[in-house]
């Protein structure tokens, strides 16, 4: 029986490429025939990206992140945070503002922060007159510890799911933005996560921050040497890029800044690549590409070549170790490549911006093998890229054939209906290139697999099988004769009453009988 391990003979070739280096791991779908832009959460094909995103960010696609210091929580006694009423909130704010000792003031803010972990306390706090003004005053004080605790209180508020809480934080956002140019990496990280949470919740916050220069501030932050700051920046930027007004009001500014070239720099493979940072900025790049504001700019900055090299590096990494965590990075990288390949500008961009055919195809199949074993929900992402690679490129189709990758591809058919449709679509891309390609597809296990897919109860799977058989019979008449000998007509008969398939079934019957 054919084995997906056929692709393993390409691993040495891939790993020997000069640009493959070891990782230092720290901590709108279009027509299947032509490719198409694919946004997050697209329904064709479904993906496991949502589940991966949930595992990483705890909640939804556009989600909030809560930054807490577990060690500090334990040091504070591990007490269960109590819901605070108006009297307690006023007491802690008064102590924080007027206490005689700095430690006493700091402890008051810690108690307030712990209480603000409860939605009930948050609601009481924002409706209490003067509370936010007092907290902002502490945030802007000249005592670093009080500033930090006040920022942590704001961070707890920013994590609220209620837009009223986010809008109540509006007076603090200008200061949080200003502090991004500070010297404390811990404080900058906290400000970035807080801003990221507020941005996604409140349009009023965004309206205030945009003219105040949030994009230039983020562009300055991206040159930070601190990985924790970069990861927090990637999160905040990804939140900003997902809001509804991003294509019109935000992404043009981002593209006009230095952010794109720095994002691509942080995605370049090599010993300095940090997985957490790369994951955040790969999603940022994905949102920018999906906006279709100016993808030719990204291509001109070397977006295709950078992503292609990163794909090769990921394939090398999964060959070296089983536990890489790269499935989190694979999803946005595959989508970025898939969507950039749909650009018409691809035809006029040459040289270093083009992908290396055989390396990319070999790397993709190594990743497909990895997904099959470790993360099957990502198979559609890899196959969508393979679809876009082969849709308009005879050379990529030739690579599939020359590396004997048709049988490993066919072995994915039983995984799911979505996977089956994509596999069949890729094979249609190859077959439609003409007689020479169909001759290479034939003979082999293809026909018996297609007779099997014709028995599927899924109309889309059957429909795509009919398309592939029609191309095959047209360019390789021997396939039609073999189809008749294997009782193919009897298999077709079961679909004659399907309204969506009748015309194609009849056409295929006629083609088979008259070859």
UniProtKB/TrEMBL annotation:
Keyword Transmembrane: yes
Keywords: Membrane, Signal, Transmembrane
Signal peptide: 1-22
InterPro entries assigned to the protein according to its UniProt record, in alphabetical order: ARM-like (IPR011989), ARM-type_fold (IPR016024), Armadillo (IPR000225)
Spans annotated as Disordered: 28-52
Protein name: Transmembrane and coiled-coil domain-containing protein 6 isoform X1
Organism: Panthera pardus
């Amino acid at each position: 029986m054919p084995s997906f391990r056929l692709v393993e003979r390409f691993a040495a070739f891939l790993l020997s490429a000069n640009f493959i280096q070891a990782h230092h791991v720290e901590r709108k779908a279009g027509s299947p025939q032509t490719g198409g832009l694919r946004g997050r959460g697209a329904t064709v094909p479904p993906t496991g990206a949502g589940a991966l995103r949930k595992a990483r960010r705890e909640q939804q696609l556009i989600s909030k992140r809560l930054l807490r210091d577990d060690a500090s929580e334990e040091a504070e006694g591990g007490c269960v945070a109590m819901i605070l009423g108006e009297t307690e909130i006023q007491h802690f704010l008064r102590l924080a503002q007027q206490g005689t000792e700095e430690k006493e003031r700091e402890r008051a803010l810690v108690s307030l922060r712990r209480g603000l972990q409860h939605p009930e306390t948050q609601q009481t706090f924002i409706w209490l007159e003067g509370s936010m003004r007092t907290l902002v005053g502490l945030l802007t004080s000249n005592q670093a510890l009080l500033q930090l605790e006040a920022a942590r209180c704001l961070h707890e508020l920013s994590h609220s799911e209620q837009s009223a809480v986010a809008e109540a934080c509006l007076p603090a956002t200008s200061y949080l933005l200003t502090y991004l140019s500070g010297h404390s990496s811990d404080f900058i990280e906290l400000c970035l996560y807080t801003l990221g949470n507020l941005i996604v919740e409140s349009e009023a916050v965004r309206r205030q921050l945009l003219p105040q220069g949030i994009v230039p501030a983020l562009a300055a932050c991206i040159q930070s040497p601190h990985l924790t700051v970069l990861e927090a920046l990637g999160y905040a930027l990804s939140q900003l890029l997902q809001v509804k007004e991003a294509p019109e009001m935000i992404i043009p500014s981002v593209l006009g800044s230095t952010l794109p070239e720095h994002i691509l720099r942080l995605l370049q493979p090599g010993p300095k690549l940090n997985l957490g940072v790369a994951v955040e900025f790969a999603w940022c790049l994905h949102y920018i590409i999906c906006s279709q504001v100016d993808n030719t700019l990204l291509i001109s900055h070397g977006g295709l070549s950078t992503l292609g090299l990163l794909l090769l590096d990921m394939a090398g990494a999964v060959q070296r170790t089983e536990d890489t965590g790269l499935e989190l990075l694979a999803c946005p990288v595959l989508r970025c490549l898939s969507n950039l390949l749909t650009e018409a500008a691809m035809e006029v961009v040459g040289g270093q911006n083009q992908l290396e055919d055989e390396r990319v195809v070999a790397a993709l199949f190594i990743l497909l093998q990895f997904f099959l074993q470790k993360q099957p929900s990502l198979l559609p992402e890899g196959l969508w890229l393979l679809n876009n690679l082969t849709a308009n490129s005879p050379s990529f189709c030739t690579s599939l054939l020359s590396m004997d990758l048709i049988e490993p591809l066919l072995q994915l058919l039983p995984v799911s209906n979505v996977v089956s449709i994509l596999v069949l679509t890729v094979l249609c891309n190859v077959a439609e290139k003409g007689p020479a390609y169909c001759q290479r597809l034939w003979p082999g296990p293809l026909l018996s697999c297609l007779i099997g897919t014709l028995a599927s109860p899924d109309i889309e799977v059957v429909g795509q099988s009919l398309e592939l058989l029609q191309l095959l019979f047209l360019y390789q008449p021997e396939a039609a004769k073999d189809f008749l000998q294997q009782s193919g007509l009897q298999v077709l008969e079961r679909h004659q009453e399907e309204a969506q398939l009748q015309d194609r079934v009849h056409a295929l019957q006629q083609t088979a009988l008259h070859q």
